[in-house]
Amino acid sequence: MSAVLAANVGFPLLPVLVVLPVLGALVIALTPSTRPDVARAIALSTTVMTAALGIYLLWNFETSNGTFQFESDQSWIESFGISWLAGVDGISLWLIVLTVLLFPLAIFAVVPEHSPKPYYAWLLILQTGCLGVFVALDLFMFFVFFEIVLVPMYFLIANWGHGNRHYAAMKFFIYTMLGSALMLVGMLSLVWLHAKAPGNELTFDIRELAASDAVGTNAARWIFLSFAVAFAVKVPIFPLHTWLPDAHTEAPTAGSVILAGVMLKLGTYGFLRFGLYLFPEASHYFAPVFLTLGVIGIIYGAIVATMQKDLKRLVAYSSVAHLGFIVLGTFSLNSEGITGGILQMVNHGVSTGALFLLVGWIYERRHTREIAKLGGLQKVAPIMAAMFTVVMLSSIGLPGLNGFVGEYLILVGAFVAHRWWAVVAAAGVILASLYLLWAYQRVFHGPIDEENADTKDLNFREIAIMVPFIAAIVFMGIYPKPVIDRMEPSVDALVMHIQDNVDGFDEPVNEGRKGDGWAGVQAANEAANGDDEDHAEDDE
Amino acid sequence: MTYRHSEADVIAPVQLANLQLVELVWLVPLLPLLGFVILMFFGRRLGEPVAGWLATAAMGGSFLASVLVFVGMLGLEGGESGERIVEVKLFDWVVAGDFSVDIGLLADPLSVTMILFITGVATLIHLYSIGYMHGDANFSKFFVYLNLFAFSMLMLVLGDNLLLTFLGWEGVGACSYFLISFWFTDEANASAGKKAFVTNRVGDFGFMLATFLAFFAYGSIEYGEMFSGSAIPAGTATAIALLVFVGAAGKSAQFPLYLWLPDAMAGPTPVSALIHAATMVTSGIYLLARINPILAASHDWAPSLIAWVGLFTALFAASIAVAQDDIKKVLAYSTVSQLGFMVVAVGTGVYVAALFHMITHAFFKALMFLGSGSVIHGMNDDQNMKRYGGLAKLMPITAGTFLIGWLAIAGIPPFSGFWSKDEILVGVYDNSDIFANKVLFVLLLIAALLTAFYMTRLVILTFFGPPRWRDEVTGEALIESDDELPVRHPHESPWMMTLPLVVLAGLALVAGFINLPFASDLHFLGNWLEPSFYFNGHSNEYHAAAGGGTKLTLAVIATICAIGGIGAAWKLYFDKRGGTGPDAPAIMAQGWGYDNAVSNFMGGPGSKGFDALAEFDGKVLDGAVNGVGKLIQLDGSFLRRIQNGLVRSYAVLIALGAIGLMVYFLVVST
Question: Which ipTM did the prediction report?
Answer without folding.
Answer: 0.89
